[in-house]
Design goal:
The chain has 278 residues and is an alpha/beta fold. The protein is 33% helix and 25% strand. The strands form three sheets. A nine-stranded mixed β-sheet has the order 5-4-1-6-11-8-12-10-9, with helices on both faces. A two-stranded antiparallel sheet has the order 2-3. It is globular and about 60 Å long. It starts with 5 loop residues before the first strand and ends with a helix. The mean pLDDT is 93.
Length: 278
């Protein structure tokens, strides 16, 4: 039985890189084949043993709530037809999970979005999943399930990391520290979006976190940076200095579906997998 039951989904962003598609549709609802991005994320959280999905939304995000709810008209329309089975996966999630929501009224960064989730999370450790970082591990364990094993051992905050090219490093939070083995590093420093010549390593944080509840107080004490945004990286950096934060090199692949190139790459990848299993 999982010792972490709640997963937080920051989903209030505008998705401006996908305009005009995201003018009236949440970017988290963009489909990879026949499933929206956020459903892949919820399925990953369920695989890791979580059953409460806490979603931070904003204006124009009602489609997310509707997706994780029963559509009586649609179900009645396709009942007994050859298409009824297409709703099996989403029905299973709706029955298994509790979905809770609150809004981030102003876009003030990922740290602020996570802080807004405090009312949904309470005083317990929790996961954070960014739906536009789509991960897959072929037939192995999902990234959050892998991270849960690390949490069970160390009981501290954990960030998922992967090596990225130096020319891309300025798009990420970057970690440095002491390697405990090939996959786990004890973090001693992290920097948000450094220039390539200032980056302490090429290990970039991607959209999977396990956070201990004291992170909320760290975020409250974090000053806004560039653009008035509060960065979770700055709060985690303080947590690493006062306690312990681990970085985990996960097994599997990751697609940046916040970019058009990554979205197309993910679509092709999952289409090929579907063809292999058909």
């Amino acid at each position: 039985m999982s010792i972490i039951k709640k997963c937080l989904f920051p989903a209030a962003g505008y998705g401006t890189r996908f305009l005009p598609a995201t003018k009236a549709m949440p970017k988290e609802m963009l489909p990879i084949l026949t499933k929206p991005l956020i459903q892949y994320g919820v399925e990953e959280a369920v695989e890791a043993g979580m059953d409460t999905m806490a979603i931070i939304t904003g204006r124009g995000k009602r489609a997310i709530e509707d997706h994780f709810d029963i559509s009586y008209e649609l179900e009645h329309q396709i009942q007994g037809s050859s298409k009824e089975h297409l709703l099996n996966d989403i029905r299973g999630l709706i029955e298994h999970c509790t979905f809770t929501y609150t809004r981030q009224k102003k876009m003030r960064g990922l740290g602020d979005a996570i802080l807004k989730g405090r009312v949904l999370i309470g005083d317990e450790a929790f996961a954070v999943l960014l739906a536009d970082d789509l991960c897959d591990n072929l037939e192995g364990e999902g990234v959050l399930k892998q991270m849960m094993r690390v949490y069970e051992k160390y009981r501290c905050s954990i960030v998922a990391v992967q090596e990225v090219d130096r020319e891309d490093i300025s798009r990420y939070g970057v970690v440095s520290g002491r390697a405990l083995d090939e996959q786990i590093m004890m973090v001693d420093d992290m920097i948000e979006k450094p220039e390539a010549d200032e980056a302490p390593s090429n290990l970039a944080i991607i959209g999977r976190y396990i956070l201990t509840p004291d992170i909320f107080e760290k975020i409250e004490r974090t000053e806004a940076g560039k653009g008035g945004e509060i960065q979770i990286t700055d709060a985690l950096r303080q947590q690493a200095k006062e306690g312990m934060v681990m970085a985990y090199r996960f097994e599997g692949c990751r697609f940046d579906c916040g970019s058009v190139d990554g979205f197309v790459e993910a679509t092709n990848y999952f289409y090929e997998r579907m063809q292999e299993h058909s």
